[in-house]
Amino acid sequence: MPTIQWNNLWRDQMVTWNKEEAYGNQWGDPDKLDILASVRERFIEPFVTASKTALEIGSGGGRWTQYLLGFHRTICVDIHREMFHYLIERFGAIPQLSFCQSDGTGFPGVPARSVDYVFTFGTFVHLDPPLIEGYLNNLRSVLAPGANVVIQYADKDKPMAAENSGFAMTTGPIMRGMVEAAGYTIIEEDTETLPHSNVIRFQLIP
Ligand SMILES: C[S@@+](CC[C@H](N)C(=O)[O-])C[C@H]1O[C@@H](n2cnc3c(N)ncnc32)[C@H](O)[C@@H]1O
């Protein structure tokens, strides 16, 4: 089961990364891989708004952060501050990026009702269900009215996820149940495109 401690492996991998290729592209470059481009086109691009604030959970080396830079502000959340140093090296100290080091389920310092859009990819697939529930609960207070939340999560009903011990024990029904129990309404979901995971978009029930 991928615990917070298990997830330290990303920091250990990144600090020894060969910087010729951006850290994260080893899992697929969304500019080159069709299935990832379709996630970007369907779940990110329609929501990017120059007056609004985005928050990315598990921003890592910025593989998806690069598409969020059109927001007024993008808050990068990660358990490892080393990832923030990498992002500053990669994108420069640009004013729209800010950083929030999480304890694994929280958003210290993020103001209440300030976030219009949340994205996470490659992160919740490795979070045990109690951590996912923790994030779903803690998100409620930082979301602005009408905010959209987009989460890619592991689907253990798909063979590629079932065979990967680093993938969390989630499925479509388990994730949908957690989302609804935490007080959200599901707007749309893509269960077809990715071979090991699904992408769900939801909002707070007003
Ligand atoms: C597999 S990497 C994916 C990074 C990036 N999202 C991507 O797709 O390239 C997972 C990232 O999530 C971070 N992470 C792991 N557990 C986390 C948690 N509970 N809260 C926030 N970030 C977490 C790791 O430090 C790492 O940067």
Question: Looking across the biggest beta sheet, what order are the strands in?
Answer: 3-2-1-4-5-7-6
Total number of beta strands = 7
Strand % is 15-25%
Q: How helix-rich are the residues, as a percent range?
A: 25-40%
Q: Quick one: biggest sheet? A: 7 strands, mixed
Query: In the CATH hierarchy, what is the class?
Result: Alpha Beta
H/E element sequence: HHEEHEEHEHHEE
CATH-defined fold name: Rossmann fold
Structural class: alpha/beta
Shape: globular
Q: N- to C-terminal separation?
A: 34 Å
Bound compounds, please? S-adenosylmethionine
User: How many structural units, i.e. domains?
Assistant: 1
Provide the low-confidence segments as ranges. none
Chain-wise SSE layout:
Blueprint lengths: L7 H8 L18 H11 L8 E5 L15 E6 L2 H11 L5 E5 L13 E6 L8 H14 E12 L4 H4 L9 H10 L2 E7 L6 E8 L2
Parallel strand pairs: 1-2, 1-4, 2-3, 4-5
Antiparallel strand pairs: 5-7, 6-7
S-adenosylmethionine (SAM) binds next to helix 1 and strand 2.
